[in-house]
Protein: Exoribonuclease phosphorolytic domain-containing protein
Amino acid sequence: MDIDVAGPGPGSSRSRGRQPAQLRSLVCERSVLDRADGSAKWTQEGSSVLAAVYGPRQAKIQKEDAERAVVEVVYKPRAGLQSHEDRSIELEIRGILEGVIPLGMHPRTSIMVILQVLQEDGSVLVCALNAACAALVDAGVPMSTMYASVGCALSSQEQQLLLDPDAAEEQAAQARFCFTFPHHFDLTQPATSSEPQQPQQQEAPPAAVAPAVLGSRCVGDFSCDQLLDAMQLCRLGCERVAAFARLSLSKSLMQAVGAAAGQ
Structure:
């Protein structure tokens, strides 16, 4: 499923005519790998990451924990061998996943998440995090909450925050930010309704994003005010990503139900 979060704005200096607070179009494909327990491909125009989840399954003796599951993350760059930055990204993603997976439910097991970068045009960590979340849901791994990740860049000349930067914007940026927020939604309730609502029957929002930050990665030169502004901008972006995730999951479930009914 794909979605264009907002149309191109007039007079914008960004590529593709985007406004500073506009995301690129999002695409999420689920169950794309046959041999994985769960998989997903997350694309934000020029950037794309394929995620595969294996487990929970019996952990190797040297890695097993008698009280909790072990989360393993493998981050593979688009080309070449892993760099120090890639290993740092692995630790960042693993920390966030350990915060949303109730590890005590599956002691002595392993949950492996493999992330392969397919295209790289900025905000790759964001794509990897969102792909991992979609793949975990596809695998049926228990999670205390879902999450959405969005990045932004602080331009060096205009001192302007740019949501979902591409590679050129990241390279020219004075600072780069990536924030991950937990969110939840109820698929049993319609997100919108054309019927008038009673005061006690407010329609369910597409997705509710919590104010707490689940994870963050900030690089560069920035002030405290700029950090807070970046966090607020990314939270607004996460609301749109969470709404898209709800639509994507709803469509996948409807397709699965339709396929089962046709058998």
User: Anything to note?
Assistant: The radius of gyration is 19 Å.
